[in-house]
# Entry
Amino acid sequence: MADDIAGVNINSGKSCSWWSANIGISSAIHPAWHTAKNHFIVVNPWDDSASAAEIAASQTKFQDSQAAIIKWILGPNAGLYSNEGDIFEPSFQKTFYGPNYTKLSAIKTKYNPKDLFIVTAGMGSERWHTTGTCTL
# Structure
């Protein structure tokens, strides 16, 4: 289990307390951030000389073994910041954006109706193949 949680950085207490000052602000950020008591960062690096298979294993390690541990620690109402999130997050809409996803997706559709601009695990990316090369 120690290997499964190696590379975890936890910020808590005063370093997170200023987020609650923005609780009344309507923004794209997941509402869970406004009441966060902890901020976890999990890093799974690879060496510059790593093979493609080693890089792929490092990229999927979070979902394969670490996500369940972190989700158990954080509980069901936690959220993730998309810029620090895992691009392989299967429920990115709920996990990164929470109740804001529907509104944000509508805004993106209004200004980008043909999905010219896409990002993995971002607004509307569920309409695209995982390679980002074509719509589903």
Observations:
- The two ends are 38 Å apart (CA to CA).
